[in-house]
């Protein structure tokens, strides 16, 4: 039964790679352009999965439970995780599927993410993480806190997501880009060549996320999709050799990596790409902070913001919000901030050439700024 994790992971990695399903990009778009298309796709996954999860619970296939809400660790960890995914260039699953495409920066982020997840869960940081997570409140679910049926929450979420999706689907499409004639036909064309839409990809991922619940439960792992815990388990296995830590989730994340590689090779997108020094440092730092943040928060953008939200856990929805805030801060520091400063300097130079040159500084400073801009 453990092999079902591998099979589902391969399908998930394939879908994410072909659909370019990037949660980091969805969060970042909010702050850079205000575009909510990919965030809507992410919410589609949550809403559809929510219907499936509560149906499975109602018919007795799984049994949803809840525990006290570790609010402090969730807030701190989620904000840190959201900040880190901008540095790393992707969240947990994004790092896995980009590693499958051959991005060495993602390999580094993934290694340090798994390493610091293990350090935070079972290593030298475990005591501190456990201590912060012990600060809890009894409330655990949104519907429990409000005293309403979970199906009311499912209905409200589904309605909001349908309206958002309808809004985007009714927008006038932009100009179509010229494309080369297809080289593949039939299923091969659909799988490896044809562009996957954001909402189509979301529906595929939602179906896989629902399927993950009964498949995982059948092996004794009572959870849905999850990335942080399994990544930590891989490191613990490599260190201790304890085969008991190899569970359904470990097979899942190995499958994501494999599926992304298959998709990238089949579509001609696999290529080994070596990052520059700045990207290397950011990937390592981002991966390490992701591992710590996800361990504190009790999950990443999948385990918390996609899975725990579907069952309306307070931890999931609070983490979702603070991940977006953390992404916003990192976006301001590393993406929009420098570009706005450059735009302001360029505008000053156009208005008054002499003053603009003075504002830009000496030729040496200008050259250094140019090199810094290129590296960024």
TrEMBL record:
Keyword set, alphabetical order: Cell inner membrane, Cell membrane, Membrane, Transmembrane, Transmembrane helix, Transport
Nucleus in keyword set: no
Bilayer topology annotation: Multi-pass membrane protein
Ranges of Polar residues composition bias in the record: 362-376
Domain of life of the organism encoding this protein: Bacteria
Keyword Transmembrane helix (UniProt): yes
Disordered: annotated segments: 344-376
Short name of any one Pfam family annotated for the protein: Sulf_transp
Subcellular location: Cell inner membrane
Recorded GO CC terms: plasma membrane
Classification via InterPro entries: Sulf_transp_TsuA/YedE (IPR007272)
Protein name: YeeE/YedE family protein
């Amino acid at each position: 039964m453990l092999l079902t994790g591998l099979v589902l992971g391969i399908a998930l990695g394939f879908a994410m790679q072909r659909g370019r399903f990037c949660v980091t990009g969805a969060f970042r778009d909010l702050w850079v352009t205000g575009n909510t298309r990919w965030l809507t796709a992410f919410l589609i996954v949550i809403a559809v999965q929510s219907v499936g999860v509560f149906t499975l619970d109602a018919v007795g296939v799984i049994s949803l439970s809840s525990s006290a809400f570790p609010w402090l660790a969730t807030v701190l960890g989620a904000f840190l995780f959201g900040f880190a995914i901008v540095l790393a260039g992707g969240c947990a699953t994004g790092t896995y599927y980009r590693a499958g495409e051959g991005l060495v920066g993602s390999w580094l982020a993934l290694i340090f993410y798994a390493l610091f997840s293990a350090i935070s869960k079972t290593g030298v940081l475990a005591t501190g993480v456990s201590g912060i997570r012990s600060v809890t409140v009894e409330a655990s679910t949104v519907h429990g806190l409000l005293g309403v049926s979970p199906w009311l929450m499912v209905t409200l979420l589904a309605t909001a997501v349908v309206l958002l999706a309808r809004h985007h689907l009714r927008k006038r499409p932009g100009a179509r880009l010229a494309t080369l004639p297809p080289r593949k036909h039939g299923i091969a064309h659909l799988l490896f060549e044809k562009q996957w839409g954001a909402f189509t990809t979301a529906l595929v991922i939602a179906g896989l996320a629902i399927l993950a619940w009964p498949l995982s439960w059948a092996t004794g792992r009572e959870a849905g999709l999850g990335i942080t815990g399994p990544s930590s388990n891989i490191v613990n296995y490599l260190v201790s050799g304890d085969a008991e830590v190899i569970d359904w989730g470990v097979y899942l994340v190995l499958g994501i990596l494999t599926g992304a590689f298959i998709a990238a090779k089949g579509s001609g997108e696999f290529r080994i790409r070596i990052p520059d020094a700045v990207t290397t440092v950011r990937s390592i730092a981002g991966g390490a902070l992701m591992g710590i943040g996800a361990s504190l928060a009790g999950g990443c953008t999948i385990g918390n913001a996609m899975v725990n939200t579907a069952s309306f856990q307070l931890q999931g929805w609070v983490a979702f919000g603070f991940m977006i805030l953390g992404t916003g801060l990192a976006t301001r520091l590393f993406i929009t901030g420098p570009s706005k400063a450059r735009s302001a300097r360029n505008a000053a130079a156009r208005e008054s050439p002499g003053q603009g040159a003075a504002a830009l500084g000496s030729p040496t400073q200008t050259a250094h700024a140019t090199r810094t801009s290129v590296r960024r």
